[in-house]
Design a protein that fits this description.
With 277 residues, the chain is an alpha/beta fold. The protein has a single domain (3-266), classed as Nitrilase/N-carbamoyl-D-aminoacid amidohydrolase (4-Layer Sandwich). The chain contains 7 helices and 16 strands. The protein has helices at 17-33, 52-55, 66-78, 132-135, 163-171, 185-203, 254-262; strands at 3-10, 38-40, 81-91, 94-104, 110-115, 121-122, 130-131, 143-146, 151-154, 176-178, 206-209, 213-215, 221-223, 227-229, 235-238, 245-252. The strands form 4 sheets. It has a 6-stranded mixed β-sheet with strand order 5-4-3-2-1-16. It has a 6-stranded mixed β-sheet with strand order 8-9-10-11-14-15, covered by helices on one side. It is globular.
Length: 277
Amino acid sequence: MTTVRAACIQMRSTTNVATNLEDALRLIRVAAAEGAEFIATPEMTNLLDIRPVQARPKIKLEAEDACLAALSALAAELGVTLVIGSLAVALPDDDRFANRSFLLGPDGSVLARYDKIHMFDVEVGDGQTYRESKAYRPGREAVLARTPIAQVGMTICYDVRFPHLYRTLAQAGAELITVPAAFTRVTGEEHWHALLRARAIETGCFVLAPAQGGLHEDGRETYGHSLIISPWGEIMAEAKGEEPGIILADLDLDQVAKARARIPALHNDQEIRLTRL
């Protein structure tokens, strides 16, 4: 049996990059002290600001990003596998930014990068209008990475509403899928648990969903309730509410094969022909 202690970090990121980095470093250290070997932070770990004009001066190229450098150094110091849920990263060839997740090995090296594919362009009824595509360039490729812990599929927030992405990752060999998020409170109350449990059940994967929570300086309100879910859809750990902190769970990776053997849906696909009447 291969068992891994995993942690999700719940944050309330501000418009101050230094403050957010300090909070992330502190909570990651707490998780590692509790024995976590695989740790994931939420979407927009470095900066949460819905206002592109105000955010632009604070967003750096990947090679110049102080958060990435500091978190890479901490992963190496602690010897943990670390998913930086996402950073807002400047692009050398585009006026927009990338909403980019980083997977760091226990030596601090970048094992994989994933740019969020599905842009959050919606009006959910919370008084905010979200047009992520105005400021962020969507990614084009799904990413599956082999780590010392497991094969990890990388996604971000709104991606969770597109099940074909998760099925693609699972059929390619993913055992664990990360879903770092800054889910709105309005949609979180109705859909967060249902969507994440569905993605775990459909794929037979562990799902780790570290979240932002609470009222942010830019006026956004996020749902919190970070989750760790088993391949059978069971909630193994949940952050109760919106407060920053950590959740932990011991993942028996043998459960992935067992869940898929019980319900072999990944192997039972059929070509579907549509008849229009």
